[in-house]
Design goal:
Blueprint (H helix, E strand, L loop, with lengths): L2 H18 L12 E2 L35 E11 L2 E15 L5 E9 L8 E6 L11 H6 L7 H5 L1 H9 L3 E5 L11 H17 L10 E7 L1 H16 L1 H4 L2 E7 L5 H8 L8 H12 L10 H10 L4 H4 L8 H4 L11 H9 L12 E6 L23 H13 L5 E6 L4 H20 L38
Parallel strand pairs: 5-6, 5-7, 7-8, 8-9, 9-10
Antiparallel strand pairs: 1-2, 2-3, 3-4, 4-6
Helix pairs in contact: 1-4, 5-6
């Protein structure tokens, strides 16, 4: 993106945001208020963060705080592509839970609408999709400019109409401070505890009576669905505040997606990204299973974003990355264990209404695979998996599920079509209208059964990781 294009985009977004949010809603200057928090272990925080706000540096154990407790807060200008706007945002460092159930700290951003009164808010889950925590939406809002952060800046165009409608916004860094890309359970807890924090901070205007809608596309859909699925047990008080969840371009069973995009033209770079992110979340030493080329690719993407990966490795396959004895990824026990943990088919059924959209014209983006039992999708997400999940929800008690499949739209193309429909659907939920249902009319999907390990001739090894 050249400077003039970036400038024009920034001006357009700044104008929309300025109309949508009141500059006077946050009259206080930017401040940082340390909480009585504790230093977390290096694995639980981003100790290398360039901004000290992200560092957890108190004196009490992090475990002594409840999920959603606010650890720090600050008010600052909302930036677009590094350009400050008159709009103010409150950012919160809060206690949450990582993919392995350990206490961790994360950041979220709250933006008030000048037409809002704190009674309704949308938790918007970004699709920033990066293995670098510096690309998160909170960093972009605070003024940091990175290539991987472009997406979080452009998404301001989506958020501005919500502000104009009177919705306050809560925008979590869904992947956490270690950027655990594709690790759905962590996305879910980060999102739910972001909502908790936004209602506990005091300065946000949100409270326990605020109603929330969940909204997200692609990577944001991962967070949206996992939050809806985990809420009844993990955050029942948040679940009572939810009016519904709207999502599209959803990752359901990642083991299927890896086979679907294998050897594709555009999306194959997501394969190593997802393996890196899930391995990071579950402490898997994946390099011991890789070829020299595989190690090189993984090192290239270790801190990369979706912008780095798209179209970079056309035709790349898992067999190019893995040693011959691991040509079937299910021969890696740690892989099987991890992909089953991030399979939405194994998670609970949400109890609130849902609107799920899914493209199915992946050939438009260079994905031509039709693996047996998996079939087609939008180029990166598998339509049969999404249909299966929607049917599963209908069959397990949630009949307020609307499902739409866009057979002429790919992953990129489906988003602008789905987004206004999702906003309208959320408007109706906030208005108290009965949720429409597609239950009984959704075509059959794939099996979402857990992956099973396969035998391998590889020698047993307990070699330590070569990574620092």
């Amino acid at each position: 993106m050249n400077r003039s294009t970036a400038g024009l985009l920034a001006v357009a977004v700044v104008t929309a945001l300025t109309v949508g949010a009141a500059p006077t809603a946050w009259a206080t200057p930017a401040t940082v208020t340390p909480a009585q928090a504790a230093p977390a272990a290096a694995a639980q925080t981003d100790g290398k963060a360039s901004d000290p706000f992200y560092r957890y540096d108190g004196s009490e154990p992090l475990s002594s705080y409840a999920p959603g407790d606010v650890l720090k807060k600050r008010t600052l200008d909302y930036h677009v592509l590094g350009i400050p706007t008159p709009v103010k945002a409150v950012q919160l460092l809060y206690r949450t839970t990582d993919a392995q159930g350990r206490p961790s700290a994360n950041v979220t951003t709250v933006v008030r609408s000048h037409r809002g009164d704190g009674s309704k808010a949308v938790s918007y889950q970004s699709f920033y999709d990066s293995l670098d925590p510096e690309d998160g939406p909170s960093r972009a809002i605070a003024g940091k400019v990175t290539l991987g952060g472009i997406i979080a800046n452009v998404e301001s165009v989506v958020m501005a109409p919500l502000l104009l409608k009177g919705y306050d916004l809560v925008i979590p860094d869904t992947e956490g401070q270690t950027a655990e890309f594709a690790a759905g359970p962590a996305y879910g807890t980060n999102t739910l505890d972001s909502i908790r924090a936004s209602t506990r901070a005091g300065a946000t205007g949100l409270h326990s009576g605020t109603r929330f809608g969940l909204l997200g596309y692609s990577g944001g859909a991962i967070a949206t669905n996992w939050a809806a699925a985990l809420a009844p047990e993990y955050a029942p008080e948040v679940n009572r505040q939810l009016v519904g969840f709207a999502e599209a371009g959803l990752l359901v069973a990642p083991a299927h997606n890896l086979k679907y995009i294998d050897g594709s033209v555009v999306w194959t770079g997501v394969l190593p990204m997802a393996v890196i992110g899930v391995s990071r979340a579950y402490d898997i030493d994946i390099e011991r299973y890789l070829t020299p080329r595989g190690i090189a690719v993984f090192e290239e993407l270790e801190h990369g974003s979706i912008v780095d990966a798209l179209g970079r490795y056309p035709g790349l396959t898992w067999k190019d990355l893995a040693k011959p004895e691991y040509k079937d990824p299910n021969s890696i026990p740690a892989f099987v264990d991890a992909v089953n943990k991030v399979n939405l088919g194994e998670a609970a059924t949400p109890t609130v209404p849902g609107f799920i959209g899914q493209g199915n014209a992946g050939v438009l983006e260079g994905t031509f695979n039709r693996p047996p039992g998996i079939g087609t999708g939008d180029g990166v997400m598998v339509a049969g998996d999404v249909r299966a999940l929607a049917n599963q929800y209908c069959a397990t008690g949630n009949t307020s599920i609307r499902y739409e499949q866009y057979n002429l739209l790919s992953h990129v193309g489906a988003m602008p079509y789905w987004t206004p429909r999702a906003m309208s659907w959320l408007d109706d939920r906030f208005a108290g209208k009965a949720a429409p249902t597609s239950c009984g009319r959704i075509p059959a999907g794939n099996s979402l059964a857990p992956e099973k390990p396969t035998a391998t001739n590889a020698p047993a090894t307990t070699a330590p990781s070569s990574r620092p």
